[in-house]
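Reviewer comment 2.1 asked that we show a complete input and output for one of the modelled complexes. We chose the flavin-adenine dinucleotide case, as it is the one discussed in the main text.
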Amino acid sequence: MTYDYDLFVIGAGSGGVRAARFAAGYGARVAVVESRYLGGTCVNVGCVPKKLFVYGAHYAEDFQQAKGYGWEFDAQARFDWSTLVANKDKEIERLNGIYRNLLLNSGVTLLDGHGRIVDANSVEVEGKRYTARHILIATGGWPQIPQIPGYELAISSNEAFYLKELPKRVLVVGGGYIAVEFASVFNGLGALTTLLYRGDLFLRGFDGAVRNHLKDELAKSGMQLQFNADIVRIDKQVDGSLQATLKDGRVLEADCIFYATGRRPMLDNLGLENAGVELDGRGFIKVDEHYRSSTPSIFAIGDVIGRVQLTPVALAEGMAVARQLYKPDEYRKVDYSMIPTAVFSLPNIGTVGLTEEQAREQGYEISVFESRFRPMKLTMTDCQERTLMKLVVDAGTDRVLGCHMVGPEAGEIIQGLAVALKAGATKQIFDETIGVHPTAAEEFVTMRTPVSA
Ligand SMILES: Cc1cc2nc3c(=O)[nH]c(=O)nc-3n(C[C@H](O)[C@H](O)[C@H](O)COP(=O)(O)OP(=O)(O)OC[C@H]3O[C@@H](n4cnc5c(N)ncnc54)[C@H](O)[C@@H]3O)c2cc1C
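Response of the prediction step:
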């Protein structure tokens, strides 16, 4: 049997592009189909525009803090939302072009349109059928809004990047990192922002000290936090504004209601049933440890398999599939331990390894080191923001099990610490490492007294 392609990739997002490029680089004949935007969620409606918005929002604090350093402004700083959105769009267009070139220069055939699986070795795009020895599903995810009455009046992250104007009052619903980040963006840009979450405290799964510290800092920055609260209906009022009725009967008003309450796998009209591709109990594509689905010729990676929904993980999985199929001597399974992550709230969170709660649950005897301080940069300003740094150490082996931070540049700092943790660094190695002075990061190597053991 001869096929049109060795590998047919559905979805040119983080994982799909990586797999396609590397497979083609290893000599495979590769096609990739994309229905919406090159670069996928991350480039178009995820990590990249989100981070650009966070940078934009942080300037508000920078302008305030600059005064402590002698800067005076003749005029009041004024923010223009449409400039931010237009410049963000321009940057994304540039990135779309880079992705196109990356694929074409590696010899990948790029098809525009919706890909639908017809059988275990064929995909249909815009009425044309293509055959392939292997198919890779990398179709990502899609925001999910609970279907309460009036849900269609709310927006998700997809629309938030294209709002025509900055809403004056925003209600952000959700307790995950996307909710916290967007609430920080709106709050930083000057919108009256309420973050509403049905649980006791947001960011489940993060270290308890981190969650509480961020809660305090967000409250200090003027954000309204409403926990144990849920919206049961949304109504549009005559002036165009929105009214959210909560479970407890309270009513909140807003100009924009933004839901960040989870993402579902993007399986719409994908034709999985035509090839017998099975889903797992949560509705994601079921794969084995090598990303092979229940149909041996079909693989799946990234958000659509619902493991760790982050761009670098999708990239690693894409690379793993390409190597497994076309460069087996270089194939290594993806190591899901010690994945560092950041939450680009204001202030940022950076974290790697076990939280204190996880370490205790897993039966470790631990020592916990914590430092809370006002960063040097803020000492000459009115800003009362405080930084938190925390180490969770295995008392038995002295190995550092987890590092957690809330504070400026936490994402940048945690990347280096992730290398140390991955290499098995002990607390003694942290202690013997000379600090970089004067920085906030040096605090990670100067914490000497455990707060609990
Ligand atoms: C608001 C937001 C912020 C985020 N921030 C971060 C962050 O800071 N750091 C981080 O690591 N991760 C972040 N993520 C997560 C990250 O974007 C995803 O984990 C990553 O994009 C997953 O890559 P993927 O390849 O699985 O899918 P995607 O990047 O979603 O790509 C899937 C592609 O498939 C296409 N597609 C779908 N169905 C079809 C079809 N049938 N035919 C053709 N094409 C199809 C889609 O159009 C899309 O382009 C964020 C996500 C969101 C929503």
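The first strand starts at residue 5 and ends at 10. We note this here for comparison with the apo prediction described in Section 3.2.
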